[in-house]
Each structure stands twice: as C-alpha cells, then as structure tokens.
Amino acid sequence: MTKPMTYSEAGVDIFKEENAIKSILKNNMMPRKDGIGKPLGGHYAGMIEFGDFALVLCTDGVGSKVEIAKQINKYDTVGIDCIAMNVNDAICMGAEPLAFVDYLAIEDPKPEMTEQIGKGLAKGAELSNINIIGGETASLPELINGFDLAGTCLAYVKKSEIITGEHIVEGDVIIGLSSSGIHSNGYTLARKAIQSANLSYNEPYPAEEYREKTVGEVMLTPTVIYVKEILELIKQVRVKGLSHITGGGLRNIMRLNDKVCYEITNPLPVPHIFKLIQEKGNIADEEMYQTFNMGMGFVVIVAESDAKKALDILRKYSPTKSQIVGSIVKGAGVVHKPLNLHY
Predict the structure, then answer these.
(1) Dihedral pair phi/psi, residue 304, rounded to 5°
(2) CA 75, CA 220: separation in Å to the nearest integer?
C-alpha cells in the first residue's frame, strides 16, 4: 500500500496559509471608516457602506485546475469556475452579484485558447446574471507556465438584509446543496493522486457513472453556480447562514459562527471522482473532508420551522440535489457523525 497522501505533502498546507493570512492582516487594511463588519476577518466577502446598501467585493481564481485544462487542451469551462468561485462567495452575504472583472496571466496568448476561455467566462456570466465589465490580460512568459485565471465580483445588498451567521442557534437546520464534483479546490492533491496511479487524463474514466468521458473531462466539470436558487430563497425565507464549501471542506462552515456546533448526520452522496482520488492517493477520510467539498458545494442554515419551505424553493429553482444534512447542536466546530470526524 502506498503512503497516505495529504494536501500538505502535495504542496498546499491550509494551516500554513491561514497563518500567512494572519500575518498580512497585522497591517491596517482599512484606513477608511465606511467598512462594514470585519471584511478581512474570515467571512466570504468584504463590504463597504453605500447609503442604505453595502457594496460587496470578493476575489478568487481557478487555481491548479487550469493545469488539467492545459494537459487535455480544453479551456471552455475554466471561465465558469472563475466566476462561480466569486459569485458563490458573494451570495453568502445575502448579496446579489452585479458585475465582474477578470485577470488572465498567460505565457503565450494564442487566440484559439483565449477564445475558449472567453466562452467559459460568458457562460458563467449568463448563469450568474452579471456583466463582465472589464479585465486585464498579461503576457508573462518569464513568470507563467501556461496560464492563470482569476477575477473579482461586485455585488450589493441592503444593509438591513446582510446575512452573517450571527443569529444561528442550537436547533437550526443545515441544508446541503450538492456539488458537481471537485469544483475548483484541492486540485494539487487530486492531481497528485491521479498521477501516482499512472492514470492519464485522456483515458476513459474507470467507472460506469462517467463512461463516455475521460478522466480529465470529469475533473474539469465546472463549479456549480448557486446564484439563482439562493437569491430566490432569501426573498421568501429568513436565512440565517450561507456557506460556500471550497478549500478547507467542512471547516468552511465555521466562518459563519464559531460559537455553535454544526453536526452533519445525513450527508449528501459522494460523487465517484472523490472515491477515485481517495483510493488512488490512499487518502484518509479526515484529509478528504478538510480538503474537498465531498459532494456538498453549498450550505444553507434556517430555523427548523422554515426548513420545509426552504427545501421546496431550492428544489424548484435549483438543478442540484438538496436535503437536510444536519442541525446545530450544543458545542463548537463541525462534526461529521457517520464518519466520526471533528473539526
């Protein structure tokens, strides 16, 4: 049996990243007095006052998922990922995304490649109902091997309707929305696991579930954009917390309120791609659930009395599966009861 893989040994140490961020934040990043809350303090996006509204800004990129696009010469989905990673963060504040700007750093700006990237960005904008109002392309052959794609989203919300998670209490219900797969996090570990098994990204995926796709195509499945269903939900239900499950897996939920315990008792099904990664990399359950979304790409927290209505709305407007996955209990942290995992 091969030595168990970890995200840290693959090259990404999430705890080291957290400490690095803390060192950045030792500096005064907010000389103005019109910031709202703690935009650099661990939530999903920053906010600034704009009359009766808060302007919401967040920025993110596609990460090393672009390396797989490069390997199989398929670039038409990474633009969707770029927008998804941003708009899904913005809606966690209860905000409606408005506009987007992108940044493409590239080794060699070939039109046939950039056209595909543009198609993905356009599709992501359509799915999010936003405008891409600008961007920057930088040719950096001395710095970039391939390309890197990132962007920034502008959203807005009435100050009286901002969702932070501070009102989450014991007894509230956790609703999970399914992911489409890996989304856009953990690819350094995922790629190392696949490579260690000598699997080619161009060979047929080794499971009936994806029998007509290659390994690379399955790994490039774009991130789900949850904008439509979440915006509809917050119009009709008092939502207490919204969490985008990205790098860090289940630990992301603690950004909402670290004074309660999020107990997962009925998790969503785990897509086969995670089982393949875990098997090929000999990765422990705890490592998988603190690196990947494991089938749950987004979380909604509501009062128990609102759970049925919330599910009805989500199932009406969302193409993804949604179900009650757990509840808020006494304590602190995140507990995955079926696997006895504690974060």
Answers:
(1) -55, -35
(2) 9
* Separation CA 35–CA 44 (nearest Å): 15
φ and ψ of 101, to 5 deg: -130, 145
Structural tokens at position 81: 């990922």
The amino acid at residue 144 is I
Strand order in the sheet with 46-50: 46-50, 53-61, 147-158, 96-106, 131-139
pLDDT computed for residue 10 by the predictor: 64
Dist CA 133 CA 269 (whole Å): 38
Q: Interior CA angle at 16 toward 10 and 19, to 5°?
A: 165
Contact yes or no for 306/175 (Cβ under 8 A)? no
Q: Label residue 201 by pLDDT band (50, 70, 90).
A: very high
Residue 334 bridge partners (DSSP)? 262
Beta partners for residue 264, in sequence order: 326, 336
| CB < 8 Å & 24+ apart, contacts of 11-15 | 11/188, 11/192, 12/188, 12/189, 14/247, 14/248, 14/290, 14/291
Asked whether 188 and 83 are in contact (CB, 8 A), the reply is no
Domains in the chain, start-ordered, CATH in brackets?
Answer: 32-161 (3.30.1330.10), 173-342 (3.90.650.10)
Range name among 21-35, 199-213, 276-290 with the lowest pLDDT average: 21-35
Res 3: pLDDT: 74
